[in-house]
TrEMBL record:
Its main location: membrane. It is found in: Cell membrane. GO terms for biological process: isoleucine transport; L-leucine transport. Component of the transport system for branched-chain amino acids. InterPro entries: Brnchd-chn_aa_trnsp_Livcs (IPR004685). The keyword Cell cycle does not apply. The gene is brnQ. Keywords: Amino-acid transport, Cell membrane, Membrane, Transmembrane, Transmembrane helix, Transport. It comes from Subdoligranulum variabile DSM 15176. This is Branched-chain amino acid transport system carrier protein. The lineage of its organism: Bacteria, Bacillati, Bacillota, Clostridia, Eubacteriales. Belongs to the branched chain amino acid transporter family.
Length: 446
C-alpha cells in the first residue's frame, strides 16, 4: 500500500498553505495587532480559532468523509442544497470576491504607493490585466500546481516575508504592553478576533481546496481511500501550524508599530509604513513582491479549484480551459471596481456562508454520532440558514439596506436573536435545529 514520504507530505502541505495564505492573511492580523494593542493575545486566540482552527477542521472533514469534494459533502443534506451551496461558495471565494480581491489588494498595498496619484484607474487596469494573465498561465496547467505553488511560489513568498518580519522583530518600534487597545478590541477582544478571522475566507477555502489536495495526493501514487484521508489531514495540520506562527508574528509586528505610528486605516497601509521605516524605498519593493506573490499563488489555487469543480458539476458543459478563462475575465472586470466596493459586499456574503460552513464541518466530523442521518443535517442546516440570512441582511451597506427597506427587519432580528449584534445570531437556531433533528431521528427509529 503506497504512502507519502515525509518529504512528499511537506510538499503537499506547502501547496495547501500556499493556496490558503494570500495577502489578506497578512493584512488582517497586522491591522488587528495595531488595534488590539496589549489585548492582542486574547484577540489572537479568536482569530486563530476562525482563521486556523476552522480551516484545519474543514480539511479534516473532507479527508475523514472520504468524499471527492464539497459537492458530495454538502449533497449529504440534499442534492439541491449541495448544488446551491457549492456554486455559491465557489463563486464567493472565486470570481465574485476573493479572486478580484487578490488583484486589488496586490495593487493597493504593493504598487499604488509607488505611483503618482493621477492615472490610478488606468494603472489598476493594466496591473490587473498582467496579474490575471499570469494567473491564467499557471491555472491552465493544473497538473503542475503542486510544483508551481508548493515548490516555487510559496518558498519565494516565505523568503520575502521572513526578511520583513525578522527585521521588525529584532528592532521593535514599541513595547506591546504599552499600546492601548482601540475600538471593540478594548472591551471585546476575543469575539472581535473571531469575526476578524472570517475575513481570511480560509474556512470556506478549506472546503473548496479539498479536491486539489486529494488529486495531488493521488497524483503521487496514493490510491487507498484511508491513506488519502490520512495524508489530507496531516497536510492540513502542517499548513495550519505554519499559518498560526505567521499570524502571531505579524500581529505582534503590527502592535509594536503603534510605538511609532498611529493606527492605519487598514492592514495594508500598516505593513507599508513598517516596510518603509525599516528599508526605506526598498521596503516598498519588498512589500510589493511579498504581497503580489502571496495573492498570485492564492488566485491560481482558487481558479484551479473553481474550474475543476464546475467541470464536475456540469460534465456536459464547458471544458476546464473555458471555465478558467471565464473566471479570469470576470475576476478582472470585478477587480477594476476597486477594493472598497469588493469589501463592502463580501462581508455580508461571508456572514451568510460562514455559519453554514461551520455547521457543515462540525456535522461531518460528528456524523458517526447520528449516522449522518439526513433529517439531522437538514434541520440543523435549515435553521442555521435562516439566521445566517439575517446576518447577511444586517451587514449589507447602509444605502442598500435603505433601498430595500430592511431597517425594520434588521432591528426586529437584533432584538429577538441572542448574540445577533455580535455576529453569532446563528448559534442558537443551529442548536435548536440539531435538537429537533435528533428527536425526529429517534422517533423514526423507534
Amino acid at each position: 500500500m503506497k504512502k507519502l514520504t515525509f518529504r512528499q507530505l511537506l510538499t503537499v502541505a506547502s501547496m495547501l498553505f500556499g493556496m490558503f495564505f494570500g495577502a489578506g492573511n497578512l493584512i488582517f492580523p497586522a491591522s488587528m495587532g495595531q488595534l488590539a494593542g496589549r489585548n492582542l493575545w486574547l484577540a489572537s486566540v479568536g482569530f486563530l480559532i476562525t482563521g486556523v482552527g476552522l480551516p484545519l477542521l474543514g480539511v479534516a472533514a473532507l479527508g475523514i468523509s472520504r468524499e471527492e469534494g464539497l459537492l458530495e459533502l454538502s449533497g449529504r443534506v440534499s442534492k439541491g442544497y449541495g448544488l446551491f451551496f457549492t456554486c455559491l461558495l465557489y463563486l464567493t471565494i472565486g470570481p465574485f470576491f476573493a479572486i478580484p480581491r487578490c488583484a486589488t489588494v496586490s495593487y493597493t498595498v504593493g504598487i499604488q504607493r509607488m505611483l503618482p496619484e493621477t492615472g490610478q484607474t488606468l494603472a489598476l487596469a493594466v496591473f490587473s490585466l498582467v496579474f490575471f494573465a499570469a494567473v491564467l498561465f499557471f491555472s491552465l496547467r493544473p497538473g503542475e500546481i503542486l510544483t508551481w505553488i508548493g515548490k516555487v511560489l510559496n518558498p519565494l513568498f516565505l523568503v520575502f516575508l521572513a526578511v520583513l518580519v525578522l527585521r521588525a522583530l529584532t528592532a521593535p518600534l514599541g513595547a506591546v504592553a504599552d499600546i492601548d487597545p482601540t475600538g471593540s478590541y478594548a472591551a471585546a477582544a476575543l469575539p472581535t478576533g473571531l469575526l476578524e478571522g472570517y475575513n481570511t475566507m480560509d474556512a470556506l477555502a478549506s472546503l473548496a481546496f479539498g479536491i486539489i489536495v486529494v488529486n495531488a495526493i493521488r497524483g503521487l501514487g496514493v490510491e487507498e481511500p484511508g491513506q488519502v484521508a490520512k495524508s489530507t489531514v496531516f497536510a492540513g495540520i502542517f499548513s495550519s501550524l505554519l499559518m498560526a506562527v505567521i499570524y502571531l508574528l505579524v500581529t505582534v509586528v503590527g502592535a509594536q508599530s503603534r510605538g511609532q505610528f498611529a493606527a492605519a486605516s487598514n492592514g495594508g497601509e500598516a505593513l507599508a509604513q513598517i516596510a518603509e521605516h525599516y528599508f526605506g524605498p526598498a521596503g516598498a519593493l519588498i512589500l510589493a513582491a511579498t504581497v503580489t506573490i502571496a495573492c498570485l499563488k492564492t488566485a491560481v489555487g482558487l481558479i484551479t479549484s473553481c474550474g475543476e469543480t464546475f467541470v464536475k458539476i456540469f460534465p456536459h458543459g464547458p471544458s476546464y480551459r473555458v471555465w478558467a478563462v471565464t473566471f479570469c475575465v470576470v475576476s478582472f472586470l470585478i477587480a477594476n471596481l476597486g477594493l472598497n466596493a469588493i469589501l463592502a459586499y463580501s462581508t455580508p456574503m461571508l456572514m451568510f456562508l460562514y455559519p453554514l460552513s461551520i455547521v457543515l464541518i462540525l456535522l461531518t466530523l460528528g456524523g458517526r454520532l447520528f449516522g449522518n442521518h439526513p433529517t439531522v443535517l437538514r434541520w440543523t442546516i435549515g435553521c442555521t440558514a435562516l439566521a445566517a440570512l439575517v446576518d447577511l441582511l444586517r451587514t449589507l451597506p447602509g444605502e442598500t439596506q435603505a433601498f430595500l427597506h430592511l431597517e425594520g427587519v434588521v432591528a426586529l432580528a437584533q432584538s429577538w436573536l441572542p448574540l445577533c449584534e455580535q455576529g453569532f445570531g446563528w448559534v442558537l437556531p443551529a442548536l435548536i435545529g440539531l435538537v429537533i433533528g435528533l428527536v425526529l431521528r429517534a422517533v423514526r427509529r423507534s
